[in-house]
Amino acid sequence: MKSKPMYRMRVADEDAAAFFIGVMKGYTKYLSKQEFSTMKGQALAGDVEGARRGLNRLLRKKGVLKDEECI
To answer: What is the distance between the alpha carbons of residues 54 and 46, in angstroms, rounded to a whole number?
Structure first.
């Protein structure tokens, strides 16, 4: 039995989270399962901007993105 979320996100937030998760799937070969899961959970919780910053930080640290680039 699935538990229901405590609150429902606005449609715009759901679209932003879905879009971010789609973008993030392109970088799965550079992320561990734990990192991917954390970013996905953060986006679904409504903090898409924080998840985006975290993904940028991880990808720069791993040398995938240059300092000037960002997602």
So the answer is: 14
The 10s digit of each residue's pLDDT in 38-60 is 999 999 998 999 999 999 999 99
Q: How many Å is the Cα radius of gyration of the chain?
A: 13
Helix axes 33-44, 48-61, angle to 10 degrees: 160
Q: Are 36 and 51 in contact (CB under 8 A)?
A: no
Task: Give the pTM.
Answer: 0.77
pLDDT tier, 32 (very low <50, low <70, confident <90, very high otherwise): very high
Ordered by start, the domain boundaries in the chain are 32-60
Helix axes 33-44, 11-25, angle to 10 degrees: 160
